[in-house]
Amino acid sequence: MERPIGVFDSGVGGLTVVKQLNKILPDEQLIYFGDTARIPYGTKSKRLIQQFALEDALFLLQFNIKFLVVACNTASSSALEILKERLHIPVVGVVEPGAQAAVERTRNKKIGVIGTSATIGSSSYTKSILKLMPDAQVLGRPCPLLVPLVEEGWLDGEVTRLTLKKYLAPLMEQKVDTIILGCTHYPLLEPTIQDILGPDVSLIDSGKETARVVKETLMSLKLVNSGGKPGADLYFVSDSARQFAEVGSRFLGRPLENVQRIDFDEFLIKNSDAPLLKNFEVLYDE
Amino acid sequence: MERPIGVFDSGVGGLTVVKQLNKILPDEQLIYFGDTARIPYGTKSKRLIQQFALEDALFLLQFNIKFLVVACNTASSSALEILKERLHIPVVGVVEPGAQAAVERTRNKKIGVIGTSATIGSSSYTKSILKLMPDAQVLGRPCPLLVPLVEEGWLDGEVTRLTLKKYLAPLMEQKVDTIILGCTHYPLLEPTIQDILGPDVSLIDSGKETARVVKETLMSLKLVNSGGKPGADLYFVSDSARQFAEVGSRFLGRPLENVQRIDFDEFLIKNSDAPLLKNFEVLYDE
Questions:
Q1: What is the pLDDT of residue B280?
Q2: CATH no., domain A5-93+209-277
């Protein structure tokens, strides 16, 4: 089935998922949206993240996508249910695949999760893990400085190591044997984190696990594209395309092409009557 | 003149300016808008910052404000000209007052500026300083990690000190004798920064200087309110009011009341025909 797969994230982080998707699903065309005008999502409220996620999905639906990947831990944690309810195509987020992998990997049933404040505050990973392994102990730790550190390019060095040690200390004290990298920025810190934790702690890259689940789901729904790739992947962003291409190539591990900026406010104004965004009565968390 | 003063910022940082305004203009009512749904501005493009600033101003104009304070270094650096061109009320930003104070304070004419990537990239402080002191040497240093550190509440401690030392090293090597805190978050780091630099380097708090300039301008334009304060200050935000009140009280040094969340997307859709936002032909920097 030649229709493309839609992927969205608040910014560049989701490109770590794109990288994995390209690897294991080389014949699928991807349409990516990075909401760089409103990045980050991880410090914002649940209500707002749900609104943003619906708007991002509406943008991608224009391309007749057959499948939606929420390549953002924050949006997967706070908005996956509402997306599944409102969209008529299959939706996969990064939380469940990461939780599944952690449950398969742990030996002592003590699992740590690191992520943004919104992701950890939502307890999404904890809920997913406990569904699969009710006697697991799950320890979440919000790490709001890690995204800015990655975007500054400080992937190693004293500041990053000290920050990581401070964030990871409570997880190490509780002797977790598995830690989920619950943010698509964190795989870039994986070597430093592994070095700090030592070889006995397993790290789970949710993005990598998600790509695997996307492939399985496409196969079971008979949505896999059997011909060659129908067109190049397209990337859309709500702020500067140049800046996204520069930072994004670090995440993708190769130069980024086909990046276009769109005026997202204009898009929303034009689509203010879209049923997808209507009757949005989720209670505001305040 | 009883009409209120409008103040906007991308988030809570502008409250450091509010604190100073309340101190020296106790009879003026302030209407504050913090665009917390789209914070931060400092990592975003010039074109987008200009658009956001016009939208923020449009929101405040509803309250019949007599004066606009751009309490955000990033917006002052990238959008002050367009705001002055398009609004029919006086507009003051934080850059010129900070530059003025630095020029008065320096003895060796070597001035450092720290701020967000957008503020430093715009060279706004350099241009303002050179207008006043053409033979000054100005050294700008973007410090993208400082805002997240302040918001995490890590105002001192090893991580913050190491980060500051790394950022400040090039300024210290060049022997600047004055450094402008070119971001409204940075006054919370002032004691730590002063401790690292030692007593021979003067720190300029742009917010404090701006409040002084606002008072002078109001007086010269005969816009000062001579009666008592006509009403309590009001605070509007585009994301969670609770979260803003919590973090904001740290910036203001007292509990924050009268905070209301507004749906900014809805506001923009309703006002999509506003002339202020039209014919916005600034070239996109890409």
A1: 63
A2: 3.40.50.1860
